[in-house]
Specification:
The protein is of the alpha/beta class and about 280 residues long. It has a domain at about 30-130 and about 205-280: P-loop containing nucleotide triphosphate hydrolases (Rossmann fold), CATH 3.40.50. About 25% of the residues lie in helices and about 20% in strands. It contains 9 helices and 10 strands. The strands form 2 sheets. A 6-stranded mixed beta sheet has the order 6-7-8-3-9-10, with helices on both faces. A 4-stranded antiparallel beta sheet has the order 2-1-4-5, covered by helices on one side. A hairpin with a 1-residue loop joins strand 9 (about 250-255) and strand 10. The structure holds adenosine-5'-diphosphate (ADP). Adenosine-5'-diphosphate binds near residues 79, 81, 86 and 87.
């Protein structure tokens, strides 16, 4: 990862958080559901996956995946390469056609994209040389809410400002995205998701390529985002840090091996089942 020489300190001010739970950090007093909603007010926003099966033509990528989670939690998708983690994230994002099963968001079948669900691709899949400022990237988060008939309003500008502020990107808003460090790039994409007023953030390998301080900052940020009531679901490779970064795990090897709180499901036996057959592949 390259830290830009003019970067705003080591990955920005999220590094100035103390111990993860040392204070009830509510950045700027904003609730997750900036556009209204109800997370944290007794009506948990629930995401439920029932008997999901997804295929790419002849390749069966996922089958028998069934779990339910809700706002305020963070979930790690764990499994070897090709296990179906990205496929599951894309399915939850409404980007793929399901072969069987269903995905329910707030009790309703998810059909196509919803502005309440934000998908953040792997950083390696993004063309960081595309000429775009941080602010323009975050403004893109408003497009799904605008519709073709409505102009970018003061309300939209206000939400973009709040998202930039929450992710500590105000000083960097005019910078090209190509000139951001890895941690800043992650925060810029999360800011776009906040501007979108997303309740659910789907992140593909968010920790990959970040140095240790940036990983800690992102982990603290995850805690803030879930405490505010958002649901985070991320594919994750580093088995040593699962416990630190996430509440729940889903172990996957095309089929679901286990799902539940890290303390209960992230066991040696489940990991062996998840990785054993591919260890020599
Ligand atoms: P992971 O994210 O866990 O590495 P993926 O979801 O990317 O796994 O892939 C799951 C399976 O689906 C793999 O066998 C992969 O080769 C296959 N696959 C993924 N994307 C495509 C695609 N666009 N076309 C065909 N097969 C795909």
């Amino acid at each position: 990862m390259v830290n830009h020489p003019h970067s705003n300190g080591p990955e920005g001010a999220h590094g100035d958080h103390g111990a993860p739970h040392d204070h009830a950090h509510q950045p700027h007093g904003d609730h997750v559901c900036w556009g209204g909603g109800g997370c944290g007010h007794g009506h948990a926003h629930r995401l439920e996956v029932r008997s999901l099966r997804v295929r790419y033509r002849e390749v069966l990528a996922l089958e028998d995946v069934s779990f339910a989670t809700e706002c305020g939690r963070s979930l790690a998708l764990i499994g070897p390469n090709g296990a179906g983690k990205s496929t599951l994230l894309k399915s939850l994002a409404g980007l793929l056609t399901l072969d069987a099963g269903s995905i329910l968001w707030r009790g309703q079948p998810l059909t196509g994209k919803s502005h309440e669900i934000a998908y953040l691709p792997q950083r390696g899949d993004v063309d960081w040389n595309f000429p775009l400022t941080v602010r323009a990237l975050v403004e893109m988060g408003r497009y799904p809410n605008l519709g073709w008939w409505r102009k970018f309003s003061g309300h939209d500008a206000d939400i973009v400002l709040r998202a930039l502020t929450a992710m500590d990107l105000l000083d960097l808003q005019d910078r090209q995205i190509s000139a951001l460090s890895g941690g800043q790039q992650q925060r810029a994409f999360i800011a776009r998701a906040l501007a979108q007023e997303a309740h659910v953030l789907l992140l593909d390998e968010p920790f990959t390529g970040l140095d240790q301080p940036a990983q800690e900052n992102l982990s603290n940020l995850f805690r803030d985002l879930t405490r505010e009531g958002r649901l985070l679901i991320a594919s994750h490779h580093d088995l040593r840090t699962v416990e630190n970064h996430f509440d729940d795990v889903l172990l996957l090897r095309r089929r679901q091996i286990a799902f539940g709180p890290v303390a209960e499901s992230f066991t040696k036996a489940n990991l062996a089942q998840t990785y054993e057959a591919t260890a020599t592949a």
